[in-house]
């Protein structure tokens, strides 16, 4: 009797009414994937490079000007001990400083191209007019100023032998040319450093793009019309796909280029100290440094900040990603109980176990 009652109960429990429809579940919000050891190591190096590059720029400029004035005055009075860097034929001077702008463009052009292609979602016209044009302007400024420096030295100088009126003939015959030689080395070392620092700022907030892509894909899959401040909410589906593909492809290269930019910028600072201690007089170095700083200020701090005037600042594309992490305004959604205590340099690190536990909690 008991067995028969149990069978009837089970049959009733398994019975499904015809008008009963399965409940629609929207699913759980995806969380960040587990970070590999290689990715963690690369983020550590990138974090150190960002600390080096993004040291307070105003303070850095003050240090540059102070060193150009004070150290140069001391170097004009005292004779510093000779070192490898005091030799004009040292490898860093011959193969780096003398072709310094080549190395600057060698690293910044691909860096700007990759970052702008991602943030502009492949819009080529915007890439060239809003971003690569900055490097074209910087190249023009470098060429114009170094040409002016050379003209001033050759036109207003004179040879210690009166029989030679040109600098080329004077030096060719073993004489000395007396001219006001504004330091091209100081100019390029300071100007190149400031340009690289500004262009590298596109990396700020770069890691958040991955989270924004994931969240936006999830929101669109639900056809969610609630208010959100995700910076990707206004881009088209095609642009979102381009962004997702390009971000995954270029991110390792962007990180690698940033590391080399930081190394080159450190080398420029070392060579600047060498130039201050062993070459030119104070006024020649100080004037070149002031010109480099003013050129940077007029372009990156004045011109590029004007709204609706090209080019744009580094990192500005068809969406904003480096002005702080957006907070979604969706009060009706259940907040994830995923563990949030594990962070590295401001970024959450989830292990596979954490991911499985978080998914289990969401299902419950």
TrEMBL record:
- Read off the InterPro entries from this record: FIT, FITM1/2
Signal peptide coordinates? none
Membrane spanning residue stretches? 61-80, 95-114, 126-145, 253-279, 286-304
The subcellular localization recorded is:
Endoplasmic reticulum membrane
Say where the protein is mainly found. Answer: endoplasmic reticulum
| Protein keywords | Endoplasmic reticulum, Hydrolase, Lipid metabolism, Membrane, Transmembrane, Transmembrane helix
MF term (GO), any: coenzyme A diphosphatase activity
What are the recorded Gene Ontology BP terms? lipid droplet organization; lipid storage; phospholipid biosynthetic process
Which Pfam families does the UniProt record give? Answer: FIT (PF10261)
Q: Which PANTHER family match?
A: ACYL-COENZYME A DIPHOSPHATASE FITM2
Q: What is this protein called?
A: FIT family protein CG10671
């Amino acid at each position: 009797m008991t067995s028969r009652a149990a069978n009837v109960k089970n049959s009733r429990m398994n019975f499904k009414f015809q008008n009963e429809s399965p409940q629609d579940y929207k699913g759980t919000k995806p969380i960040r994937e587990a970070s590999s050891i290689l990715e963690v190591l690369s983020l550590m190096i990138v974090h150190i490079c960002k600390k080096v590059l993004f040291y307070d720029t105003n303070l850095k400029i003050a240090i540059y000007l102070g060193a150009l004035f004070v150290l140069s005055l001391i170097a004009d009075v005292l004779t510093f001990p000779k070192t490898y860097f005091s030799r004009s034929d040292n490898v860093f001077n011959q193969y780096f400083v003398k072709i310094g702008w080549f190395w600057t463009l060698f690293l910044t052009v691909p860096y700007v191209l990759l970052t702008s292609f991602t943030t502009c979602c492949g819009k080529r016209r915007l890439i060239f007019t809003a971003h690569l044009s900055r490097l074209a302007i910087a190249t023009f400024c470098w060429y114009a100023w170094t040409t002016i420096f050379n003209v001033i030295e050759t036109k207003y100088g004179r040879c210690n032998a009166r029989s030679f009126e040109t600098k080329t003939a004077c030096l060719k015959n073993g004489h000395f040319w007396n001219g006001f030689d504004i330091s091209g080395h100081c100019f390029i070392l300071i100007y190149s450093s400031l340009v690289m620092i500004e262009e590298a700022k596109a990396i700020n907030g770069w890691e958040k793009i991955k989270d924004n892509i994931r969240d936006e894909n999830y929101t669109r899959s639900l056809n969610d019309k609630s208010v959100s401040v995700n910076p990707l909410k206004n881009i088209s589906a095609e642009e979102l796909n381009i962004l997702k593909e390009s971000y995954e492809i270029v991110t390792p290269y962007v990180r690698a280029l940033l590391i080399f930019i930081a190394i080159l910028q450190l080398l420029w600072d070392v060579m600047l100290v060498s130039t201050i201690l062993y070459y030119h007089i104070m006024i020649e170095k100080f004037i070149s440094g002031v010109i480099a700083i003013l050129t940077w200020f007029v372009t990156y701090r004045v011109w590029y900040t004007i709204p609706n005037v090209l080019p744009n600042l580094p990192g500005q594309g068809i969406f904003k990603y480096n002005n702080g992490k957006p907070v979604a305004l969706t009060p009706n959604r259940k907040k994830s109980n995923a563990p949030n205590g594990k962070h590295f340099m401001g970024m959450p690190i989830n292990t596979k176990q954490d991911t499985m536990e978080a998914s289990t909690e969401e299902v419950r």
